From TrEMBL:
Entry-linked InterPro entries: Acyl-CoA_Oxase/DH_mid-dom, Acyl-CoA_Oxase/DH_mid-dom_sf, AcylCo_DH-like_C, AcylCo_DH/oxidase_C, AcylCoA_DH/ox_N, AcylCoA_DH/ox_N_sf, AcylCoA_DH/oxidase_NM_dom_sf, Glutaryl-CoA_DH_mitochondrial
Chain ranges of the Acyl-CoA oxidase/dehydrogenase middle domain: 132-222
Acyl-CoA dehydrogenase/oxidase C-terminal domain span: 234-381
Annotated protein name in UniProt: Acyl-CoA dehydrogenase domain-containing protein
């Protein structure tokens, strides 16, 4: 009797009833609201961000691992399982939730004033307000410490000048968490996108993450009051801690894309006949399937271990780097291998495999390239800093 890849080791036995319930909830909303439409959204390069945000907000999926302000206060593992199910539909949909909850909301929740939390978080948790996270710049991706965006004091206000690139949710956001260099170091600001001088141009001609709203932000002398500055965000450590939080969701999400590819390949191989029998019955096909199932389970066990550690004592950045490096790298290998099993049909939008592979090309490099994570791990192993060397 055939079983699904994650059933080989009875991994469900490692989850609590509450975690399984959260997973089922996320899977249900994905099946109802995303899967029937995702191929068309991807083809057209559009996604109904606000409609999805409201739907996810009703179910408590936005900022679900945060506490208070309308957030669900779920465990890290439960949040990870939700990310897995969301990305099993599409990486762009998971990115919407990750950026909203683990970057924009987390930055305000962790570093904001009580007034800022009350102003933004309840609406963001409900999906009524959309947030984005402005750190990456056109010329400063992996080296945010040299960001060109500046914030200078002008009386009781701040003037922000510069630009950000590849910012998820930016074209539709109500608030942008902007990181800028000041005379005192890096600072964060919760900037209403309606502020004069703030503009967000949607990035077009993407071949990856097409079902995601991606923007380029321009800050043309944007004036914000002192009350917009995140008071507890001091130095580059603040935005990097937000990235560490978001990368945890990617560790789980990439597994969802891999699982969906493998499930598709298994179903296809069982029904596609060549030389008088299903291709699933050929040794070479079974070897591919076995190797992919093995890597999927290893990645799942890694994600679950990191999730339990997150809930118990928290995670160190290098631990998150291990998870992101391994799981995204293996997920994209699985997607590419599954494409070979589907043959020519593997490039068709009727199947999700090449869409996942294309999306994972972005996931592989955003929020830390593989090379950056290798250097983070290498520095921890050797005690030597190789960045910039």
């Amino acid at each position: 009797m055939a079983v699904s890849p994650l059933d080989l080791l009875d991994l469900d036995a490692l989850l609590t009833d509450e975690e399984r319930d959260v997973r089922a909830l996320a899977r249900r909303v994905v099946d109802d609201r995303v899967r029937p439409h995702i191929a068309g959204w991807y083809e057209r390069g559009e996604v109904p961000v606000r409609d999805l945000a409201l739907e996810f907000g009703k179910l408590g999926l936005l900022g679900m691992h945060l506490t208070g302000y309308g957030c669900a206060g779920a465990s890290a593992v439960a949040y990870g399982l939700a990310c897995l199910e969301l990305e099993a539909a599409d990486s762009g949909v998971r990115s919407l939730v990750s950026v909203q909850g683990s970057l924009a909301m987390y930055a305000i929740w962790k570093y904001g004033s009580e007034d800022q939390k009350q102003q933004w978080l309840p609406g963001m948790a409900a999906g009524e307000l959309i947030g984005c996270f402005g750190l990456t710049e056109p010329d400063h991706g992996s080296d945010p410490g040299n960001m060109a965006t500046r914030a200078r004091r002008d009386g009781d206000d701040w003037i922000l000048t510069g630009g950000k690139m590849w910012i998820t949710n930016a074209p539709v956001a109500d608030v942008a968490v902007i990181w800028a260099r000041t005379d005192e170091g890096v600072a964060g600001f919760a900037v209403p996108t309606s502020s004069p001088g703030f503009s967000a141009r949607e990035v077009k001609l993407k071949l990856s993450l097409r079902a995601s709203a991606t923007g380029e932000i321009t800050l043309d002398d944007v004036r914000v009051p002192e009350s917009a500055r995140l008071p507890d965000a001091r130095g580059l450590k603040a935005p990097l801690s937000c990235l560490t939080e978001a990368r945890f969701g990617i560790i789980w999400g990439a597994l969802g894309a891999a699982r969906d590819c493998l499930d598709t390949a298994l179903a296809y191989a069982g029904s596609r006949e060549q030389f008088g029998r299903p291709i699933a019955g050929f040794q070479l096909t079974q070897a591919k399937l076995a190797d992919m199932a093995l890597e999927l389970q290893k990645g799942y066990l890694l994600a679950l271990h990191l999730g339990r550690r997150h809930d118990e004592v928290g995670l160190r950045p290098e631990q998150v780097s291990v998870g992101k490096l391994n799981n995204v790298r293996e997920a994209i290998k699985i997607a590419r291998e599954c494409r070979t099993i589907l043959g020519a049909n593997g490039i068709s939008g009727e199947y999700p495999v090449l869409r996942h592979a294309n999306n994972l090309e972005s996931v592989l490099t955003y929020e830390g390239t593989s090379e950056i994570h290798q250097l983070v791990i290498g520095q921890k192993l050797t005690g030597l800093n190789a960045f910039g060397g």
